[in-house]
Amino acid sequence: MTQASEFYKKISEQLKAGKAFVAYSRPGDHLVNALLQNDKSVHQLIDLNESGFIFAPFKADGAAYIIPSEGSDFLEFDNKDAENIDSELFESLSLTTDFEMMEEDQKVHEKLVQKGIDRIKDGEFQKVVLARSEKVQVHDPDPLRIFKKLLNKYSEAFVYLWFHPETGTWLGATPETLLRSERNKFHTMALAGTQLYRGEENVEWGQKEAEEQAFVTDYIVDSLKNLKAVEELEVSEPYSSRAGSLLHIRTDISGKMNDPGDLEKVISTLHPTPAVCGMPKQEALQFILKNEEHDREFYSGYLGELNLKSTTHRSGNRRNQENRQFSAISKKTELFVNLRCMKLKEGQARIFIGGGITKDSNAADEWMETVNKSQTMKAVLVK
Ligand SMILES: C=C(O[C@@H]1C=C(C(=O)O)C=C[C@H]1O)C(=O)O
């Protein structure tokens, strides 16, 4: 275990040297981890049997990068004394806003959403997730400062700072797990529907949101069922789940892979889920690629630990010796969907935000939803 000061010093040196690294903290965990590549070589992910930390784009056929476990240093420190600044839910943001630009962005986004709604009504697809990106001038673009703020503010999210010479600097605080697996057990979630958190998690959801989220659950469950590689699927009841100043509807889904080597099949079945793309997948994807103004790059892609050696220990009595050995060699994967994220470049942040569109969506409401979602990142960019 390192001291926080030592941890940040090493990361800062890594950044200066232009070598790839990632620093991150799991949802609800005080531990902050980092993986620092020892050299400047570029490792594109070849397949999901590798071990390390991966960063994959939205487009399933785009280049994904890995910081391999081998040849990299692991660091961790306990951030338990972090000041909790979670209570400032509705702090006023003093970022300079260019209102003319904002009006233009709003027009463009509402037009895009309306086009999506029209296509759904024409029967081309059932749901599509449409996103926009927004440039924000940052007063103090030090990625470490922003990362520390993210850690303190969003302890229930997967918080990360990723730097790679090929992708640049990305930061985020995502509420969405793509896949958690250990040996042949896996967990995923269906997350959709958004409303502002007003101090109460036990809230009513409108029919539109409930339906939209149920679509996502059904689609994930059906695709996993069709995949002959999994069994014993368990699906929770939907419930409200908080993500910073927002609430979403969430359903937990778990199951077993017939063979732990089927990870690749499960991930390619899940990604991109209808929570970030739509359904049917191919039709929604084509619409996104053709109509969104930006390249999503790594937004709504996924990131996390891939096949890392598990550190779970069983009790060390004699009878458990065998089990202990078994758990020591088991591998753990923990991947998150890259949402509530931004790319930092030359003093500017590009924030990516989107929302699910169904036949009952309203373009103006969808714009507001992206404005609300953008606060997750904007709140940490203020001084
Ligand atoms: C697409 C995003 O979020 C996703 C879309 C949601 C929605 O449509 O309500 C909710 C949670 C996420 O699954 C985003 O944050 O950019």
Can you describe this structure?
It holds the Pfam family Chorismate_bind. This is Chorismate-binding protein. InterPro entries: ADC_synthase, Chorismate_C. The chain has about 375 residues and is α+β, with helices and mostly antiparallel strands. The protein has one domain: Anthranilate synthase, CATH 3.60.120. The protein has eight helices and 18 strands. The strands form two sheets. It has a nine-stranded antiparallel sheet with strand order 5-2-1-7-8-17-18-6-14, sandwiched between helices. Strands 3, 4, 9, 10, 11, 12, 13, 15 and 16 form a nine-stranded antiparallel sheet that branches. A hairpin with a 3-residue loop joins strand 7 (about 160-165) and strand 8 (about 170-175). The protein is globular, with a radius of gyration of 21 Å. Bound molecules: the ligand C=C(O[C@@H]1C=C(C(=O)O)C=C[C@H]1O)C(=O)O. The ligand C=C(O[C@@H]1C=C(C(=O)O)C=C[C@H]1O)C(=O)O binds near residues 248 and 340. The site of ligand ISJ has 17 residues, from strand 6, strand 10 and strand 18.
Topology:
Elements: H1 4-17, E1 21-25, E2 31-37, E3 52-56, E4 65-68, E5 72-78, H2 99-121, E6 127-137, H3 143-153, E7 158-164, E8 168-174, E9 177-182, E10 185-196, H4 207-226, E11 230-235, E12 239-243, E13 246-257, H5 263-270, E14 278-279, H6 281-291, E15 302-309, H7 321-328, E16 331-337, E17 341-345, E18 348-357, H8 363-378
Antiparallel strand pairs: 1-2, 1-7, 2-5, 3-4, 3-15, 6-14, 6-18, 7-8, 8-17, 9-10, 9-16, 10-13, 11-13, 12-13, 15-16, 17-18
Helix pairs in contact: 2-8
The structure holds the ligand C=C(O[C@@H]1C=C(C(=O)O)C=C[C@H]1O)C(=O)O.
Pfam family, one: Chorismate_bind
Protein name: Chorismate-binding protein
InterPro entries: ADC_synthase, Chorismate_C
